[in-house]
Structure formats: C-alpha cells, structure tokens
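Practice problem: predict the structure.
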Amino acid sequence: MSETTAFDLVVIGSGPGGYVCAIKAAQLGLKVAVVEKRKTYGGTCLNVGCIPSKALLHASEMFEEAGHSFADLGIEVTPALNLPRMLEHKDKTVKSNVDGIGFLFKKNKIEGIIGTGRIKAPGTVEVVAEDGATRALAAKSIVIATGSEVAGIPGLAVEFDGQVVVSSDHAIALPKVPETMVVVGGGVIGLELGSVWSRLGAKVTVVEYLDKVLGPMDSEVSTAFQKLLAKQGFDFKLGAKVTGIARDGDKASVTFEPAKGGEPETLSADVVLVATGRRPYTQGLGLEEAGVALDKAGRVEIDAHYKTNVDGIYAIGDVVKGPMLAHKAEDEGVALAEILAGQAGHVNYGVIPSVVYTQPEVASVGVTEDELKASGVAYKVGKFPFMANGRARSMLSTDGFVKILADKETDRVLGVHVLGRGAGELIAEAAVLMEFGGSSEDLARTCHAHPTLSEAMREAAFATFAKPIHI
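Answer:
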C-alpha cells in the first residue's frame, strides 16, 4: 500500500450526488477526492440510466413522429430504422457527458480515483484498483454517494441474462427490436423504456402490482396518462402479482395472478424487462465495520445535515431516504458541501419535481390531490387542457392538461401536475413559484409569452383562483 494521501473530503461515488458535492466543495476551498468503481464517471445516471434512456426516448420519438404526424404537417417521408446508428447516438451522448465530468474534476482540482472504495475506519478510505493495487486516503469527512442498483422483484429470484430477461441496464442496448415485450413494473423506468421499444415496433404489455401506473402520481393524471399509452398500443395488466419469470429458449414467460386473489395467467414474450424499482447500494463499503447504521429499507440513516451516526461520515442521494432522483441527489450534494464548508446548506424536499420522459411527458411537483384528500386539507383545483392552447394545436400536441392545487383559504400553490408535451420543462415554473410560497393568482397575473405551451400553466392558474380565459 502506498503512502496515505490526506484530503478534506473524500466522496465515494461519482453519480449526480457525488460529483456535484465534490465540485461544490472544491469551489468552496476544500481539497477533494472522488472514488469511482466504474471505469467512467457519472454513476448509473450518466452511464446506464437518465442520459442514455433520454437519448433513446428522443430518437424513438423522432422516428415515431416521422412515420405518423409528419404527414399531417405536410412532410412526406417513409422512415427506416437504423438501430445500430440510434444506439451509437446513445453511446456518443453518454461519452460526452461522462467525459464532461472528468473535465470538471480537473478544472476544480479534484482528484478522481478509479477503484473500489471502502471505509476502513472513520477518517480513512481504502481504494482497490482493478489490478489489485491499494491506496489509503485520509479524510476529515467522507461522503457515501454510491447510489442504487436494480432491485429485482421482492420475494422472487430473477436471473437476468441480459438478452431475454433484462433489467433497465440491458434494455438500453438491445441489439434488435423485439416483436413482443413484457414490462414488469408500471413505474417511471418501465414506462419510459417500454415507450422506446413500443415506438420502434414492439408490442408492449405492462404488468403492475398496483391498480394504477405511476403509483405515487396524482390519480387523475395517472388515469389519463394510461389511456394515452393504451392509444399508443400498450396493454396493461394491473393489480397483478408476478409469481414467476422463466426463460424458454429464445423467449421468456411471466406468470402472474390477481393481487387480491384469483387464477394465474402466463404471458410469453421475446423480452421481459423487470423494472420494479431500485435499492440502495451499500454492500462492500465497510459500513458495518465502521458502525454506520442502516434503516429497515437498507438505506444509510442520516440526520437533517446528512450526517450518519458516525462522526465524519455523511451520505446523500439514492443511498438515503427520499425519492431516488438525480436532481434530489444533486441538491443534497450542494447542501452538504456548503455545510462542510461552514455554511448553511438546505434542501426543500416539498419542492422536488419528478418527470416521466414519455410522450406526452408527465411532470409533478408538490402534493397530489389524493394526498390532500387523505390529509383533510381544504383545497381548490384549477385545470386547463392543451387542446385549448394555440401553440399545442400548431404542434399537433394537444393531449393532456395542467392541474394546479392550491390552499382554499390562502391560495398558496401546494401541487402542480402536468400531462403534455414538454411537461418536464414547464414544471420548473411551478417549482420556482412554490419555492417562494407563491399563489395561483401570482402565477395567473404573470405575463406569459404568446403563443407558448406555458400559457396553459397561466390558464390553469386563472382557473384555480378565478376563471380561465380561453375555455
């Protein structure tokens, strides 16, 4: 083992939480190192998650539009799928992003170390390189930012072969378009990747344990969204508990039964994508030996300042409580870096948006109507359909609506939900409004450019505190 190198901060994991924490800490004057077990930086998000999936979602969306809606715009084309070229676009997108992290490390004088990191004791991280060489890092503070991994199906052993029975890691690189695909799990990952292969020609069936897709999403939005996916060719088996997945030659079968009891059913498909969520990645980090406490869900327990029960050891991102979202991890990374530098870092967990990058997109921030009903809060609702929006009509993107929930007495906006084209961009306006405690009237009285999709946000706000103008 080489001589120990001393740092103010050592971050284990270079995903969105880890690399952002490292960069912010370095900007604030700390000497920082980042340990990454992959050969490239960026974690799951940049390598096999957010970034490659969005590249495929966009490319497949363009293919779908070229074959269908282009003709209505006066553009006559007959698209031909070049899947290798599409996957090449995905890979180039990934490379440019992960290379960008390396550039930012150098720019901010952060030492990036490729190898497997393990906490030997509070204040010490051991790194084992691929060739077996070890290195010790001394750190005033250690941040666990190791993210999450594919969870599989609770109580059911699933053997991923990467070809027929696949996880999301494999589903971004299928060598050919399957004729049939069963997606186990009706959450964000399953519906996004199911959309990719559906647009490219696969017949997709979603098997979901709950009685709705996008479980935590507002029920009205979820129901409308499912209907739009059904129009696109998706089949749904809801309230279904998967009891078995087996490969049979070049195909695989999924056996499921009604979650409330009943006769089992079996579906066969060329590809079965298991997308039932993710679990914190904590194994092999030396947490038990260091005395770091985990909760019942296997997450690292932290206090309000991201500190574990062991002095000098902190954790952020997917490995701790809260939604497994890259931007949530990034915000925690900034907040923790500020705290370690003696500042007052903070994350407002009530204003973290979530987005489903299908077409149309689904975006949400704040509480759902279901949650307001359950809590007994008096509220009011304003809605506006994209069908009545001029820009949406011009783009042939009239599916969906904006829904705003506000406190009945104060008019303070409590939640905003958007189903429609560009919803992931539109939701930022709602997040800013809510961050400053704004009301629906504040939003409605803010001038919006015309014609834009954002006018639907304003109209929904008018509908919340008064009446909409254009419907």
